[in-house]
C-alpha cells in the first residue's frame, strides 16, 4: 500500500525535474544559437522580410525619406552582407535603416538573453536589478541620476554617471545613436528617449546581472559604488508579548478601503512609481487656478476622470487651467478625443482621415496572444464583425492608400473656455503631440517649455504589432495607421513649438525647481503652488 502511495509522488517528482532540466537546456541552447553567426543566405532572407513588411503594411513611408532612397539603403545592406553575422551584429547593420524612416514609434529590438524558469524565478525574488533602481537624464552629452530608488543614499539627484562596469554613457550613446530616431527632424525627443532606454541598452551590453559597479561624480569628486539587486519590501510582523497583545482586532473601514481602491483604478495608480497617472488640484494660493498633470494617456478610466475634473472646475469657477503634458509619451487616441471635448466650445476634428495601406492591414490575429484566456470566446464572436467593419469602411484613394473618415465631435457641456497654459517638453510625444497640435489653434492657450518630441503634423502609430525576423529573431515594431493632425501649420517634421521657451537644467532638478511652472505662476501673480 505504501509503495502504491509513494509511486505517484516519485513519478511527479521525476517529471518536474525533467521539465526543469529541459527548460534550462532549452534556454542554454537558445542563447548559444543566438551567439552563433547566421549564414549569409538567412540574413538576406531577413532583409527581404523587413522590406516586404514595410512595403505591405507601413503607410506614408516616404514622408521623410524618398522611397527610392530607402530601397537603395536595403540594396546597400544586401551588398554589404557578405559574411555570416550574429544576431547582435545584424541588429547594428539593419536598425539604422529602420531609423532612417524617421518615425519614432517604429523600433527594432535585440534578442533578450533567455533565462530558465528557475533563474527567472530567482531573479524575481531577488528584486529590481541595479540599472532599474535609478531614473536617468541625458543632458549635454552627460548622464545624470534624477531619481534614486535604491537603498544607497550616497547617490544624490544630479550625480553624474561616469561609467557602469567600465562602459561610459558616451560610448553607449555613440554605439546606439543610429538605432533610434524621433518623428521627423525633431531633436528634443532624442536625449529623452536615450535616457529612457539607457538601462535597456546597457542590458544588451552586459546581460542580466545581480550587481554592477557604478563610477559616479559629485561636485568634481569621483567615487565608486557597487549596486546590487533590491529585494521587494516585505511586511515585517512585530512580535508582541502576550501580556500586551490587543484582545480585539483594529476596526477596518471597508467603505474607505473600497473607495481608495476605486480611486487608484480610476486615476491609474502606478504601484512601482507610487504615483497617479492623472493628478488634479486647485491651488490653495489662488482658488481660481487649477493644475491637471497627465503622465500618459494609457492608464486610468479617462471618461470618469475628466468628467469629475471638469465638473470640479465648473463648480469652483476656475479661471485658469494649467495642463502639464511634460514627459507624457502618449497613449489612447480615444482619451485625447474625450479630453479635448472639455477644452473647446465648437465642433471639432483632431485628425484628418486615417491612412492605411490596404483594407485588411488592420486585421491582427496575433493580438489574441496578448489577451487573457477568458476573453477568447468574446474575441472569437466579435473579431469577424471587426474584420467586416474595417474592410468595408476603408475608402480607396490610390494604390496602397486607403482612408478611414474621422467624424466631427461635439464639445462637452462642461467645456472650459478660460485661460489655459500647456507645459510641454521633448518627451511630449505621440497622442500628447496630437492634442497639443489641436490646442495650438485655440486663442486662449499658451505653450510653455520646449518643442514637443512628436511631430505636429502627425505620426504613424495606431495599432503597432511586433514581428520577429525569421532567422535573426530581432523584433520589429511598426505602426499601421498614419494619423495626421488637422492642424498642418508647422514646418515639416517638427513638433509643436512653445510660445515661451524654457529648458530645464540639471541644477533645476537638483534644487527641485520647476522653471516652467514658476514662469506661469509669475504671470498669474501666484507666489507658490
| Major pleated sheet | 6 strands, mixed
Discrete helix count: 14
Low-confidence stretches: 1-6
Structural class: alpha+beta
Q: Tell me the strand order in the biggest sheet.
A: 9-10-11-15-16-21
Determine Rg (CA atoms, Å). Answer: 26 Å
Work out the strand percent: 15-25%
| Strand count | 21
* Overall morphology: globular
Distance between the termini: 76 Å
**Oligomer category:** single chain
Helix content: 25-40%
The average pLDDT value, as a whole number, equals 90
Summarize the SSE layout with pairings.
Elements: H1 2-35, H2 40-57, H3 67-80, H4 87-99, E1 107-109, H5 117-126, E2 134-139, E3 142-148, E4 160-164, H6 169-176, H7 189-206, E5 211-218, E6 221-228, H8 254-266, E7 269-270, E8 275-276, E9 278-282, E10 289-294, H9 302-315, E11 320-324, H10 333-340, E12 354-356, H11 376-393, E13 395-398, E14 401-404, E15 419-424, H12 431-439, E16 445-449, E17 458-461, E18 466-468, E19 475-477, E20 481-484, E21 500-501, H13 506-510, H14 515-524
Helix pairs in contact: 2-3, 6-7, 10-12
Amino acid at each position: 500500500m505504501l509503495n502504491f502511495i509513494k509511486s505517484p509522488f516519485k513519478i511527479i517528482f521525476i517529471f518536474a525535474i525533467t521539465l526543469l532540466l529541459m527548460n534550462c537546456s532549452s534556454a542554454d541552447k537558445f542563447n548559444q544559437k543566438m551567439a552563433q553567426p547566421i549564414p549569409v543566405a538567412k540574413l538576406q532572407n531577413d532583409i527581404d522580410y523587413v522590406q516586404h513588411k514595410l512595403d505591405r503594411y507601413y503607410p506614408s513611408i516616404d514622408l521623410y525619406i524618398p522611397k527610392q532612397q530607402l530601397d537603395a539603403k536595403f540594396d546597400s545592406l544586401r551588398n554589404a552582407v557578405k559574411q555570416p553575422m550574429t544576431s547582435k551584429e545584424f541588429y547594428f547593420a539593419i536598425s539604422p535603416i529602420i531609423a532612417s524612416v524617421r518615425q519614432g514609434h517604429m523600433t527594432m529590438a535585440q534578442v533578450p538573453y533567455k533565462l530558465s524558469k528557475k533563474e527567472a524565478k530567482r531573479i524575481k525574488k531577488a528584486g529590481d536589478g541595479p540599472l532599474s533602481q535609478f531614473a536617468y537624464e541625458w543632458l549635454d552629452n552627460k548622464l545624470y541620476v534624477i531619481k534614486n530608488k535604491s537603498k544607497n543614499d550616497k547617490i544624490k539627484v544630479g550625480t553624474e554617471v561616469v561609467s557602469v562596469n567600465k562602459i561610459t554613457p558616451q560610448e553607449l550613446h555613440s554605439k546606439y545613436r543610429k538605432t533610434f530616431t524621433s518623428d521627423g527632424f525633431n531633436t528634443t525627443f532624442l536625449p529623452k528617449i536615450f535616457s529612457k532606454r539607457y538601462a535597456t541598452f546597457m542590458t544588451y551590453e552586459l546581460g542580466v546581472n545581480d550587481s554592477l559597479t557604478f563610477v559616479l561624480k559629485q561636485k568634481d569628486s569621483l567615487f565608486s559604488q557597487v549596486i546590487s539587486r533590491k529585494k521587494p519590501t516585505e511586511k515585517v510582523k512585530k512580535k508582541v508579548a502576550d501580556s500586551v497583545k490587543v484582545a480585539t482586532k483594529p476596526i477596518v473601514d471597508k467603505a474607505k478601503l473600497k473607495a481608495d481602491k476605486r480611486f487608484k483604478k480610476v486615476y491609474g495608480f502606478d504601484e512601482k512609481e507610487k504615483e497617479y497617472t492623472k493628478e488634479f488640484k486647485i491651488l490653495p494660493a489662488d482658488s481660481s487656478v487649477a493644475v491637471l498633470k497627465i503622465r500618459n494617456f494609457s492608464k486610468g478610466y479617462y471618461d470618469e476622470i475628466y468628467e469629475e475634473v471638469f465638473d470640479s472646475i465648473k463648480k469652483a469657477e476656475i479661471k485658469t487651467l494649467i495642463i502639464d503634458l511634460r514627459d507624457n509619451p502618449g497613449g489612447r487616441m480615444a482619451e485625447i478625443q474625450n479630453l479635448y471635448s472639455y477644452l473647446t466650445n465648437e465642433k471639432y476634428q483632431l485628425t484628418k482621415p486615417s491612412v492605411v495601406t490596404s483594407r485588411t492591414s488592420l486585421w491582427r490575429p496575433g493580438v489574441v496572444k496578448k489577451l487573457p484566456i477568458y476573453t477568447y470566446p468574446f474575441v472569437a464572436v466579435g473579431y469577424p464583425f471587426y474584420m467586416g467593419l474595417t474592410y468595408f469602411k476603408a475608402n480607396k484613394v490610390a494604390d496602397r492608400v486607403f482612408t478611414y473618415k474621422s467624424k466631427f465631435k461635439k464639445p462637452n457641456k462642461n467645456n472650459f473656455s478660460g485661460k489655459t497654459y500647456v507645459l510641454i517638453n521633448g518627451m511630449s510625444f505621440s497622442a500628447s503631440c496630437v492634442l497639443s497640435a489641436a490646442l495650438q489653434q485655440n486663442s486662449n492657450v499658451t505653450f510653455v517649455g520646449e518643442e514637443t518630441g512628436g511631430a505636429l503634423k502627425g505620426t504613424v502609430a495606431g495599432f503597432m504589432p511586433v514581428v520577429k525576423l525569421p532567422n535573426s529573431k530581432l523584433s520589429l515594431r511598426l505602426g499601421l495607421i498614419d494619423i495626421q493632425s488637422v492642424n498642418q501649420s508647422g514646418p515639416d517634421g517638427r513638433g509643436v513649438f512653445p510660445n515661451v521657451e524654457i529648458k530645464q537644467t540639471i541644477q533645476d532638478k537638483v534644487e527641485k525647481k520647476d522653471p516652467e511652472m514658476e514662469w506661469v505662476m509669475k504671470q498669474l501673480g501666484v507666489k507658490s503652488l
